[in-house]
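During the practical work, I selected for study one protein's amino acid sequence and its backbone structure tokens, as given directly below:
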Amino acid sequence: MKQFFILGLVAMMATLQAAAQKIQGTIKDTTQTVVPLLRIYLSGTQKHAVTGNNGQFTINDVKPGTYQLLAAGIGYKTLEQTVTVTNSTTQLDLTIQPSDVGLNEVVVTASRNKETLGTVPSSITIISGKQLREQSAITTDINQLLSMNVPGLTLGTNTSTNKGQTLRGRGMLIMIDGIPQSTPLRNGDKDMRSIDVSVIERVEVIKGSTAIYGNGADGGIVNFITIKANPSKHFSGSTDVSSAGSLLHPSNTVGGRISQNITGKINKFDYVASGTYEQTGVVKDADGVIIAPFQSLAQNKNLNLFAKLGYDINNNSRIEVMYNYYRTMQYSTYVDSATGKFGEAPIIGVKGTNPGDKQGTPYNHNAYVNYTNKNIFKNTSLNANLYYQSFYTVFEYSDFYAPPGNSAIVSKKMGARINFNTLFNFHPNLFGDITWGVDILNDKTSQPLTDGRGFVPEMNMKNYAPYAQLKTYLFKDFLVKAGVRYENISLNIPDYTTIKFGNYAGGVFVKGGNLPYEALVFNAGLRYTRYPVFNPFVSYSQSFSLYDLGRTLRLAKAVSNGATSINTIETEAIITNNYEAGFNSNIGKFNASGAYFISTSNLGTSLKDVNGVAVPERAPERVQGFEFTAGYQFRSNLSANASYSHVEGKKDVNGVKTWLPTTRISPDKMTVNVNYSPLKQWDLGVYYIYSGVRKRFDINPSTKQYDLGNGPVSDFYLVNFYTTYRFNKSMAIRLGVDNLLNADYYPVASQGRVRTDSYIKGSGARFNLGFKYNF
């Protein structure tokens, strides 16, 4: 009996000893800096770990044996290490290599979790903070900054709107830190100018249809990521002052701008606050003629106030609040001339006072409360975001209405995004994560006239959308992503009566009600990640969109067999399908990327002219094109980058295929930029932009003119220049010139729309001289 007792005691001690085995270690990069937030997998088990802020990790209760340990993280190659567990504690000191495929830049918009470009099977353009700082020395017009950098995005219009700007021939969803700025229920094309460039840290552009953020992303997503606090000091900041105006004809064109930023971290709190005020003068073309003030950036007063406060509750959890206020209003002392005519003479600015209310955006409020927990429960992190947006914009006074007036768009959004991310590890060659959760959104949008008349009734949309996104590696080198999202929408519209505008008689009473929408949309993609020389991907994705219902509602027609109701109006949603194949390549100092895409939809989003009124045309569409980018680092202080994009599309109207209008399809676009630093403290940059030709249409024989959106577009090119000199770490002076060669041209939208009120020249050469002080 005593022997059995001793043997049992020995067996029990051995079992306890086996249960007490653990692996712990520290992971550093090649510079011997600890790396936090790496995911650790132990092959053949379901055991995981995540490195902490000190780069350390621990995996408990590991049975003796030999395992493959894998470590993966944003911006790094997957680390594989054979580990033999014998003692009670196995100690490891590991080094992980940075990614060398040229795709280690972090992106958060594509899947709502931090990941690198090399792990996303789709086309993405990131405009970095460095690019924004350099190019905002040329212009602070965010529309132009984006079109200079994003292949497939139509060039900016030199106006306060992004009318006529599409991404790959379709509309896009604009966001600020994930908060939707677009008003797809009644698109006013004011969503791009919703925040000042001074508080944008980077811009992430996801190209191609996507439903991951909901309604309106037929052509993709543009997400403005706001600046973060500087954690290295208790208090620091910068003061930036500048002046801009016409380079060759400066009279009455010079304006000023001042921006103040403070930031820091005190114990567990970090903060950043910023204020920017800008006042612009008149804008002149290449000949020194004042450009028409219609929706222009001339004589504007712009104000942006921003604040962000964060608190690190502990090593795993954090709470953060953000608020941004943006206002831009025009105080023009000029009016549009009456002498312009499309194709013959542009409209220009002449002295006068505009009747009605001032045009602009009196306010755009954005706020969020964000909570993150890296380990809310086993192998799962949480991101919970509550957001609010309130937007009001006023359009120009027009006799389009009877009687004349100003229309406005009023939009309020309240939403919640609950986002979980769960790690899994089934096998050394099969591991990854699942992102899952739910989006809740209430969007109320209307278009009244400022005198109280109702142009478009308030549309009250309630959306509940659960989703799941799988990301996994097969055999280590094949990255697979697949996801599904269920849109469940209730859209309430009150009774309303249409009003007269243009050649539409109005006076139609429409019985309101509720429009329900349900849709299940999918995405799937595959990327091969092994070789940096060739990193290809293929993908399929869908988007869901309620296309500009406001245009349809305000054009309701009386029916002969009963009362008009919202059920007798075309309100069907659009599902867009995006098919894409592309690659990324990195060979030494050379990098390149390319993609070919096809986008189809059973319903369209083009406008056609019916008796002087723009009416939606719901015909099936097919858009296709390709993009190519390349860059080379000649020396540490000399680099060059280039891009080329081509988009084309057709619609099928009653079995006849015709070209899509130029208001949807932009001409080919090429950009080339060269950056050179002759001295450590001196930077130079030259940017070349070419917009091509698109002449797909003939003059309508019955009207003796081109139809709406079918105007012939001629090519033009622009050259921009900037230089910065840093006296020391605190002070720098910069000079930028927009349209350096003073090209005399019409923007794409001015040529393509075939409307006299849009036939406005682009601005001539403009300077931007600034000084920045860091403290």
Summary: Residues 2-19 form the longest helix (18 residues). The longest strand covers residues 454-474. DSSP finds five helices and 43 strands in the chain.
